[in-house]
């Protein structure tokens, strides 16, 4: 419904891993009563959706220890004049191929950019998702598989927490 506070869950994904995390974030939000969400890739987001939302939960794959260029471009497109995003909630999720080869760096680069816009940053519900939700998708036992439940649960927890905060 239009009148409910809304959360924008948006992401870039080439091979579906970051999208799977985004869907789990949405599942978490949907566990909370009285909030709505929009789930879509950054390429489909309208400026009005950015202005109307109470929170942005932004997801990127790790590319050479940086966010995907599509995510950087998306952030660069946010309205800045008058700082209309100030005091909106910001949260992040990432997927990376391997352990400790860029995930946290990418989380913090997205968080830094959100802070330029004056957003209030919120992490996940467990210490294992302190900076947001992340998934390893290409190393060791995680290689060649769907995004594993341990990571999807971090994403659900992030969505649930943002939902609860926005609902207050
Ligand atoms: C060009 C490129 C660079 C990448 N660089 C890294 C990297 O530096 N560190 C890392 O952990 N994973 C890296 N990866 C792996 C992706 O982050 C990983 O496969 C991710 O889950 C893909 O997400 P997607 O399925 O949503 O596209 C890279 C992948 C590509 C295509």
TrEMBL record:
<dbReference type="InterPro" id="IPR005025">
    <property type="entry name" value="FMN_Rdtase-like_dom"/>
</dbReference>
<dbReference type="GO" id="GO:0010181">
    <property type="term" value="F:FMN binding"/>
</dbReference>
<feature type="domain" description="Flavodoxin-like">
    <location>
        <begin position="7"/>
        <end position="168"/>
    </location>
</feature>
<dbReference type="Pfam" id="PF03358">
    <property type="entry name" value="FMN_red"/>
</dbReference>
<dbReference type="InterPro" id="IPR029039">
    <property type="entry name" value="Flavoprotein-like_sf"/>
</dbReference>
<dbReference type="GO" id="GO:0016491">
    <property type="term" value="F:oxidoreductase activity"/>
</dbReference>
<dbReference type="InterPro" id="IPR008254">
    <property type="entry name" value="Flavodoxin/NO_synth"/>
</dbReference>
<protein>
    <submittedName>
        <fullName>Flavodoxin</fullName>
    </submittedName>
</protein>
<keyword id="KW-0732">Signal</keyword>
């Amino acid at each position: 419904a239009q009148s409910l506070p809304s959360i924008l869950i948006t992401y870039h994904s080439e091979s579906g891993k970051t999208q799977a995390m985004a869907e789990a974030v949405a599942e978490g939000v949907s566990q909370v009563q009285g909030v709505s969400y929009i789930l879509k890739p950054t390429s489909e987001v309208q400026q009005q959706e950015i202005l109307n939302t109470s929170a942005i939960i932004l997801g990127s794959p790790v590319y050479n220890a940086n966010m995907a260029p599509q995510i950087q471009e998306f952030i660069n497109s946010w309205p800045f004049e008058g700082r209309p995003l100030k005091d909106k909630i910001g949260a992040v999720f990432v997927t990376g191929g391997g352990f400790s080869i860029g995930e946290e760096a990418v989380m913090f680069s997205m968080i830094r950019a959100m802070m330029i816009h004056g957003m209030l940053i919120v992490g996940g519900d467990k210490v294992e998702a302190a900076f947001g939700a992340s998934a390893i998708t290409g190393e060791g036992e995680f290689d060649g598989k769907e995004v594993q439940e341990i990571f999807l649960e971090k994403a659900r927890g992030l969505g649930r927490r943002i939902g609860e905060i926005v609902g207050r």
